[in-house]
Amino acid sequence: MSSTDTAAKARPAWYRRAWTALSILILVAVVEYVVLPKLAIARQSLDRVGHLNPIWVVVAILLEAASLVCYSFFTRALLGRGHLPYSWILRSDVTGYGVSHVVPGGAATASALRFRLFVAGGAQPTNVTATVTAEAIGSPLALVFLAWLTSIPAVVSRDATPAYLTGFLIGLAVIACGILAGGSRSTVERYAARLVRLVVRYLPQRTRPWFEDLARRFRDLLRDHEVRKAFLIWATLNWVLDAAVLWTFLAAFYQPVNPVPLLLAYCAANLAAVIPLTPGGIGVVEGIAISTLLGYGIPGQSAVLAVLAWRLIQFWLPVPVAGLCYLSLHAQNGFFGGRRTAASP
After folding, report:
1. Most CB atoms within 10 A, among 141, 286, 296, 328?
2. What are 107-158's pLDDT values in tens digits?
3. What pLDDT is attached to residue 49?
4. Alpha carbon distance 51, 85 (integer Å)
């Protein structure tokens, strides 16, 4: 049993009840004060949907499909070439992506399902475990890296705020530490490692093993050049292409925007979805994305319609596609002999 599972089971009942109550309270507040007012704006502007050019919808669907394809290239790079055919990886990823949108604890359930599908396809359980763990770390980190890159134009502009400057400096320090960690053993690197150990010492006792195990796994993965390239290319492209879907719908509703505020709003909404309040961040992502776009001066009707259309393509459309992918995997592996199942974990 892992240290994470042990720590989770060690939590008292009152802690779990308090966390559940707090999650429900935050969700109700977001829906009441953020989502519902925006839906009222959407109802007032539904006539604009009827004038939407279908070409924009086709472009958005193709961009979203390309985003999922990039994520599966990311998976293949972490898993290693030759372990599974790319078509099997893509269908497994889409299946997990759709499941994460419709079940409670979506991310954990989707990871378990993807693990079973990869192992059923012939991959070794140890390789699959390392891959799923790395993706759970690397994909959010790629989003944070994208947000940091987007903050650079905001910092050099005259409209830079202390929040932008603080985020830029923190990101710069983290990237510098990462470069030093990848270099040779030096005095600076030893001081950086000593600082990390000092930080870990002040963490709560039950979180230390999890943090140390996480850092060790991530360090081992980043030693591979192909893995580092996958983080920088495929994981980042996965987010950028998904953000392009949102830009496409803003342009479709006659409100093309500067990519900088668009990416900042996109990153803020998706980073908030990391907190597992709802499956796939439904309600939370929409509220934060719309509110942030409004803060950047986007008209209310355009912002609401674009975000809702984007979430329709990004969140709901993959659900039936995931069902078809799962049936195709089950048919290939179960009904027609298919691939030989690897040893169970």
Report:
1. 286
2. 778 888 899 999 888 888 888 888 888 888 778 888 888 888 887 776 676 5
3. 59
4. 42
Q: Are 319 and 326 within 8 A, CB to CB?
A: no
Here the tokens at position 174 are: 């983290």
Give the model's pLDDT for residue 245.
95
| Residues 48, 249 contacting (CB under 8 angstroms) | no
Which residue is associated with the tokens 């004060």? 33
The domain spans of the chain are 53-335
| pLDDT value of position 248 | 93
For the chain, residues with pLDDT lower than 50 are 1-9, 181-184, 335-345
3 state SS for the chain: CCHHHHHHHHCCHHHHHHHHHHHHHHHHHHHHHHHHHHHHHHHHCHHHHHHCCHHHHHHHHHHHHHHHHHHHHHHHHHHCCCCCCHHHHHHHHHHHHHHCCCCCCHHHHHHHHHHHHHHHHCCCHHHHHHHHHHHHHHHHHHHHHHHHHHHHHHHHCCCCCHHHHHHHHHHHHHHHHHHHHHCCCCHHHHHHHHHHHHHHHCCCHHHHHHHHHHHHHHHHHHCCHHHHHHHHHHHHHHHHHHHHHHHHHHHHCCCCCCHHHHHHHHHHHHHHCCCCCCHHHCCHHHHHHHHHHHHCCCCHHHHHHHHHHHHHHHHHCHHHHHHHHHHHHHHHHHHCCCCCCCCCC
d(CA 200, CA 215): 11
